[in-house]
Design brief:
The chain has 421 residues and is mainly alpha-helical. Helices cover 72% and strands 1% of the residues. It has 20 helices and two strands. The protein has a two-stranded antiparallel sheet. α6 runs antiparallel to α7, α7 runs antiparallel to α8 and α11 runs antiparallel to α12. It is globular.
Length: 421
C-alpha cells in the first residue's frame, strides 16, 4: 500500500507540473503499477472502462461533423437577431452555448459559438472578452447536465452505471439535469447584472448557411438512441459506446460517399482527442492499482474519520474541497480518482452513494469555472481571444467567473442535499 500511495502521489504531482505530457505520465505510471505486481496483468484490460472511452471518441467525431455543417452558427445567428442590445446578446449566447454543451463537448461548444461573439464585437467595434468568458463558463456549467455533456459526466455514468435518462430522473427523483438548470437560471441573472452597462444596439447580420443537415440528424440520433438503449434489459456494458461509435462510422462513410473523397474521415478522426483518451486509459489502470492495494479504502476511511461519520459533513467536505481543487487542477483526473473513493465512503457508511456522486460532480465540474486554468473550455476561450489580440489576465476573468461560479455551486450544493439527503 505504501508503494502504491507514493507512486500515485508522484503521478498526480507530475500530471499537475507537466500538463502537456499527462497522457504519457499516466501510461508510464500504469505500466509501473503492473510491472511492480501491484495490479495483476490479467486485470489490466478489464480496468479500462471501454464504454467511457468509446463514448468520448464517438461523440467527439460526430461533433466535428456537426460543427463543420455550420448548423450551430446558424442557430446562434437566429438567436442574435431577436436580441435588443449587447447585454442580452451576451447572455443569450451564453445560454445557447450552455444548451449545446449539455450534449456536445465543452471545448467544441466554445469553438462553435465564440466566432459569432467575435463577429458581433467586430461589427460594433467593442471588446469580445466579456462575451467569450461568459460563453466558456456557461458551457462548462452545462457539461454536467447530461451523460454526454462532459467527460466527468461520462465517468460518473460509468462508475454509477447510469444511463442517459438517469441524469434527468434517477431513482424517482430529479437528477443532475435539473440541478444544473437551476444554477444556469441563477447564473444568467448574475450575467445580466455584470453586463448591465452593455447597451449597444445590434443590427441585422448575414446568417450562416448550413452546408449539410445530416450531421444534425446524426447528433439528434445519438441522443435518441442513448435514451432507447437505456430501456434494454441486461444490455452489454459497452452499449452506449457502441451507439456513439456506430453513428460516427455512419457519419464518416456517408461523408465519403457524398464528397467522393477521404477528407471527412480524416477530419472526423483528427478531431478526436486521443491525448485525453490515452490519459483516461492510463488513469483507469492506475486507479485499479491503488484500489487493488487498498488505498481507496484507506482514503474513504480518512474522509469518514475527519467528518466524524456525519453525512452532511462528508458531503460538504467533498463539494467544497472539489471546488477549490478543480479551480487549479484538471477535473478529469480528479473525478476519475475520486469516484471510487466516493463509492468506498458510501460502502463504509452503508448509504446510497448518489448524494456523494452528485456532490462530487457539482464541486468538480462547476468549480473549474473559478479560474482561467480550471477547465478546458476556459483555456480554449482565452486561446481564441489571444488569437484576436486580447490578453486576459486572471483578475479580469475572475470578475465574471467568481460570482457566476459561486451562485451555481451554492444552488447545486443546496439542491442536491435537499433532494437526496
Amino acid at each position: 500500500m505504501v508503494i502504491a500511495i507514493i507512486l500515485f502521489a508522484v503521478t498526480y504531482v507530475l500530471l499537475l507540473v507537466f500538463p502537456k505530457y499527462r497522457a504519457y505520465i499516466a501510461l508510464i505510471s500504469a505500466a509501473i503499477f503492473v510491472l511492480a505486481g501491484i495490479l495483476p496483468v490479467q486485470n489490466v484490460f478489464g480496468a479500462v472502462d471501454w464504454n467511457v472511452i468509446m463514448m468520448i471518441a464517438g461523440t467527439m467525431g460526430i461533433v466535428s461533423l456537426f460543427t463543420e455543417s455550420k448548423m450551430p452558427a446558424l442557430l446562434a445567428d437566429m438567436i442574435i437577431e431577436k436580441m435588443p442590445n449587447v447585454q442580452w446578446a451576451i447572455v443569450a449566447l451564453a445560454l445557447f452555448a450552455g444548451i449545446i454543451s449539455a450534449f456536445v463537448d465543452n471545448v467544441a461548444t466554445v469553438l462553435m459559438v465564440a466566432p459569432v461573439a467575435i463577429t458581433i464585437a467586430r461589427k460594433l467595434k467593442i471588446s469580445p472578452v466579456n462575451s467569450i468568458i461568459a460563453i466558456a463558463i456557461s458551457s462548462n456549467l452545462q457539461g454536467a447536465a447530461t451523460l454526454v455533456g462532459d467527460t466527468t459526466s461520462i465517468l460518473l455514468g460509468g462508475e454509477a452505471h447510469m444511463d442517459f435518462l438517469d441524469f434527468f430522473v434517477y431513482k424517482g427523483k430529479p437528477g443532475m439535469f435539473f440541478v444544473v438548470q437551476a444554477g444556469a437560471v441563477l447564473s444568467a441573472v448574475v450575467l445580466m447584472v455584470l453586463f448591465r452597462k452593455e447597451k449597444e444596439k445590434i443590427g441585422t447580420q448575414e446568417r450562416a448557411v448550413v452546408t449539410d443537415y445530416f450531421p444534425s440528424f446524426l447528433l439528434l440520433g445519438t441522443i435518441i438512441l442513448l435514451i432507447l438503449v437505456s430501456f434494454i434489459p441486461n444490455r452489454i456494458d459497452i452499449s452506449n459506446g457502441l451507439v456513439c461509435m456506430s453513428l460516427l462510422v455512419i457519419g464518416v462513410v456517408r461523408d465519403v460517399i457524398k464528397n467522393k473523397n477521404m477528407k471527412g474521415i480524416i477530419r472526423a478522426f483528427k478531431e478526436i482527442d486521443y491525448f485525453t483518451l490515452l490519459l483516461l486509459a492510463g488513469l483507469f489502470i492506475v486507479i485499479a492499482g491503488i484500489t487493488e492495494a487498498g488505498v481507496v479504502t484507506k482514503i474513504s476511511e480518512i474522509f469518514v474519520t475527519v467528518s466524524g461519520g456525519n453525512l452532511f459533513g462528508i458531503y460538504s467536505l467533498l463539494v467544497w474541497s472539489s471546488v477549490i481543487l478543480s479551480a487549479f487542477i484538471d477535473n478529469i483526473p480528479y473525478v476519475a480518482a475520486m469516484l471510487p473513493v466516493v463509492t468506498g465512503i458510501a460502502v463504509r457508511m452503508g448509504i446510497d452513494p448518489t448524494i456523494l456522486y452528485f456532490g462530487l460532480i457539482v464541486g468538480a465540474t462547476l468549480g473549474g469555472n473559478l479560474t482561467p486554468i480550471g477547465a478546458s473550455a476556459n483555456i480554449a476561450g482565452l486561446g481564441i481571444l489571444r488569437k484576436e489580440g486580447y490578453e486576459v489576465n486572471p483578475l479580469q476573468f475572475m470578475k465574471i467567473s467568481v460570482p457566476f461560479t459561486i451562485i451555481a455551486v451554492v444552488s447545486g450544493y443546496l439542491l442536491v442535499w435537499l433532494i437526496w439527503r
